[in-house]
Structures are given as structure tokens and as C-alpha cells.
Amino acid sequence: MAGPLPLGIPWPQDSILVPQSEESSSFHAYVHIPFCEVRCGYCDFNTYTASELPGATRESFHESLIREIEFSSKVLAQSAIPKRPFSSLFFGGGTPSLFEVDQIQAILVALEREHGIERGAEVTLEANPETLSREYLQGLFDAGVNRLSMGAQSFDPVVLSTLERKHDPAKVMEFVAVAKEIGFRTSIDLIFGAPGESMESWANTLLVATSLQTEHISCYSLIVEDGTKLAKQISRGELAEVDEDLNAEKYEMATKVFSDVGLDWYEVSNWGVPSTHNLAYWRSQDWWGFGPGAHSHISGNRFWNRKHPSAYATALEAGSPAQGMEVLDNRTRLEERLLLEMRIKGGVPRSLLNELLVSPKKISERIGSGDLVLLPGDRVGLSEKGRLVADGIVLEFLTD
What we know:
Blueprint: E1 27-33, H1 62-78, E2 86-93, H2 101-114, E3 117-127, H3 134-143, E4 147-153, H4 157-163, H5 169-182, E5 185-192, H6 199-211, E6 216-221, H7 229-235, H8 244-260, E7 265-267, E8 270-272, H9 276-282, E9 286-290, E10 295-298, E11 301-305, H10 309-318, E12 322-327, H11 330-341, E13 348-349, H12 350-355, H13 360-368, E14 372-375, E15 379-382, H14 390-397
Parallel strand pairs: 1-2, 1-9, 2-3, 3-4, 4-5, 5-6
Antiparallel strand pairs: 6-8, 7-8, 10-11, 11-12, 13-15, 14-15
């Protein structure tokens, strides 16, 4: 399970949000489905197996999610925040593909009824290949899901075993092909840097991944989170520590391989046709996160739900599922813009750096070192080299 949530301040008793900033140009929905059949050793997400969920069942949990959808509509109405249809929806987890098609459809119907969904909106569902069938995928597509994000992680069985991923790599290839045939836009997730993963293994994973010709690939360096089984295995010496220098080489290899097949980067860890939903996060748009532990951002207000599904459902029955919130002041919003927008291909406007009083000397030094590049429209962005140290650049800029 994920680490503890921040404390924040209490959710307002009247459930009225006071806008702290101008309404963002788009509105988005994240739906968290917290169920997994098994817990992977590296996972730090807010997920649960059946034995960890007394009082909450997968078969009926969509009813709690729909209750929060109805609650969100009331909150925005009484807060005088204009109603807007969703530009994108994302079913994440957990393993959303453990939900039946009827459950996903019921959630989509509620989202449409309470908020509206833009015509042609991107509707993504994360899937584990072992949970899929042609019939299930066809049902999802007919229900309104139009983008499938497949958790591949690696195409090396040894690496998958280290990560405690239970799927057969051949299933990823099979169901990406089926999804494309049905009409889905397709994406796969990869993780590099697992203990013992060689450059040869990673090169083969990239070869197989690009051969699938998905429109999008997400590619992340493995982060060993405290408290996970993987972290304990490494601390006991059962598995090798992550080699950050080798990981940098793997990232550079991925960048070249993706570029060679026409997958251009648009965010530090994402290549291909940009995801509307991903970009909404990086551009600090408004979104409502439905489900246990989900975070939301509405007009400069950030809030988060209770983590455990049973506690979340009980809190909903009593009123609000929110455990806490944070009201973002202007300085915090500017800092977050820098942190997030610096990661995307378009970079940040120099005016933002000026507002944050970033030293012109620091900017010039990073341009001189090749970490940053000047972009059209008086903007500054990351070079390929700079993408490896993006967070360090932002930290330096925000530190006196």
C-alpha cells in the first residue's frame, strides 16, 4: 500500500470550495479502482488484494464511485464553479480491468449524467493482460472506452519475475493486436532498472515494445519505495541495488530507439501521440480524482480521499470522502507550474522564471552546460541531456 497521505486542513463542513485561481481551460476525471489479484513486490500504489478488504467487495465497489461522482456534482454546483464536461477520463489502479464491463459502463453513465463528457474525449483504461479477452475488450469499446494502456513493464520473463509481475509477455503482444483491431488507441507502460536487468535485456524489451506499433509508450525508471517487498529484498542483499548510471544509459537507449521508429517525446517519461489526460496533469488543469486515496485539483484547491476502500465508502455514506485538503497560494501554484511544465516538450515561458525570481545566471549556466535550450516564443526547455536531471534543475532554480 502507498505511504501515508499528507495531513492538510479539514474538508469544509459545508463542502463549498472557494476558487483560488481562474478556472482552467479543461476538466478531467481520474477513477481509482484499487483492486489487484496479487501485490507486485515493487508496488507502492494504493491497491489491495481480496484478503485485505473486509467490508468492501469488488463486485459492488462501483456503487461507491458513483456516489462520489454524484457528490462532486453537488460540490461544484454549490461552490458556484461552472459545470464543464470532461475532456478526458482515466481508469487507473490497481487493476481496472478486474471490473466487469457493466461496472465500467455504469461509472461512465454517471460521469456523463452528472458532468458531461466531451464528444471524442480520451477515455483510457489501464489493463493487466492476464485479465483480458477479446469479448471483454469489445465490451469496453462499446461502453465508451477508446484507449487501452497495457502494463507490460518488460518483455524479459526474468525481469518480470524480479518485479513479481505474473503475466506472460506474449499476452501483451496478443491483446495489443486485438485492441488495435477493435479500434482502441493503444499505449504500453515499461519500467527499466530492475535489479539484474542487463543492457541486452532492456534492448530486447525496447525492440519488442516498438514492434507492437502502439501510438504511445510510457517508460519509467524503477523507484524503490520504502516499505515495499523489493526494498526489503535489496536491503537484505537478496537483490542488487539499482544502478543509477546504468539507468541513465537505458533512458538514453530508449530515447534513441523510440525516435528511430517515429515516437517523439512530449514529456520526460512519455513518447508518441500525447495523452490528453497526461498533459492535463503537467499543465495544472482541473481534475477530480474519484476513489480511495485519489487526489483532485479544482481551481487552486487540492484535496485527497481516505485511502482504505472501506473507510472511503463509509465516509461517503456520512458525507465527504475527503481526508484533507490544501489551498494553494500564488507562490505554490507558480512553483508547481515550473516543476510540472518543465517536464514537457514545450518547456516554460521565461516570464514564469521571472515571476519566481529565478537567477538569470543560473538559467544561463544551465543553457551553457547543455541541460536547457531556448525555444520559440521566449521559452526555455529541457535538452535530451537535461531530461535526466529535470527535477534537480527545478530544485536549483527554486533554491536561493
